[in-house]
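>> received
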Amino acid sequence: MGSMRRIALATALAAAVAAAPAQAGQLIVVDGTHAQRVNDPAVPTRAEAALPMPAGRPRASAAAAASHARSRASSRLGRRAVYAALGRELRRKRIGRAAYRRWRTTYVRSVRTLRRLGGARAAQLRYVLTSVESLALRGRLGPTRMPVAFLQLERNRQYWPRLPYPAPGDQVSFKGSEILFQYFAGEGLQLHPLSTFKKANHLHGFCERKEPTCDQAALRRILDEMTALAVKRGRDFIAWEYLFYFGGGTPPWMSGMAQATGIQALGRAAQLLHEPKYAETARRALAAFDTGPPTGVRTTGPRGGVHYLQYSFAPRLFIFNAFLQSLIGLHDFDRVVGDDRARRLFDDAEPEARAEVPYSDVGDWSLYNYAGHESSRDYHELLREFLESMCTRRLGAIYCQYAKKYRGYQVDPPVVTYEGPSLTTEDKPTALRFNVSKLSAVEVTVKRPDGRVVFDRLATFRRGSGSFTWTPRGPSTFTVRVAAKELRTGLGKRDSDSSQIEVENRPG
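>> returned
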């Protein structure tokens, strides 16, 4: 069953797939010279597919941008380097003549297409073309990286001349293929291993639950495609790489989260489809978790144990949700196929995760990374989901504890309490103090006995104590009301408290 047929079936039987992902991901499906925007229940949502920018890092450094400036001289050097790389691998018999001709043709056609384009469309294709040349110039365009580099170039060559201009973050697939590309502004369409393997897991889930959207052929196709695009990265392992500059990272780089999700998807499919070859592919990817950055993702975490990185180029960025998903992927692979190395890699790092989790808690929300910035709404929920996954797998009580706590942060209303004073003096600036339990918009209103409002202020306050300063202009007994509306979840839950404050005459 092809992608378009699966999408139509999912629409017709929407009531029967309640156990599918809560939201279908939106996708641009390319069929020749036409493209259609559709919803596909197997495709991860935009939030699931997002690659968050490492805090404090630019999207593309000035040096990276300069290296992609395509002057005539650099174009000639890049072209010669690509031809030389292809010829060298052909002579060494590490690629066949058919592949050599196909990839050389892709490159030549891309150069010709770029000459006919202008403006932003030319910039997207130029970026991807120059990325291939940069790999060749740096000696990184080897035989196992050529399939993904030239496929990505071909897809961009097909897309940019005439198809609808995507929005940043849009996911794109091409008829006859199941893999997912994502549009990164200024960097063209980029193969997205994490999103693609999440799609494979969704396809597996449909079949595991015997839903009408089960499509075993699509599951085989997506994993066969990704197996063919794996790159021999370390001395003894394969990886699924990203080929664009990101957050200060120079391509090619890898993600521990994407790697573990791939291992998980391959292991699940090996069991479901009775295909040992998928488990063997996954085993070839495990050593990334035994290899330090920037080649692999194993490092020492902030609590002194083994930590698996989200980004191989960022060895001091410890992202909570990505670390947990890496552990879940390794655990699941061992559970479904029985693999001693995956079990050992899980056991190596799980104590560090247990030690790190409490440091993700700021009292009313979670941090995205250790000693870093707070999670967005989507990443708080993602972390909660991974904690819940660790809990349901019975991997430790601490994961259950924090999954429950973080759910409370999402659904519990704020608690706001007026703390005083109850007595002040006219014409004296008075701090109306309160305590609020979570990030909220807090409003303080002061009314006279006849109900007339004499003071009304609104501001945002973080968890803890806060105050507004009011200067009463005459003696009386006033009513102070403080109200809070939480800001993070979008649910708009509220709480309020009120009290009276007596204002006395000014002395003398």
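>> The longest helix spans residues 72-91.
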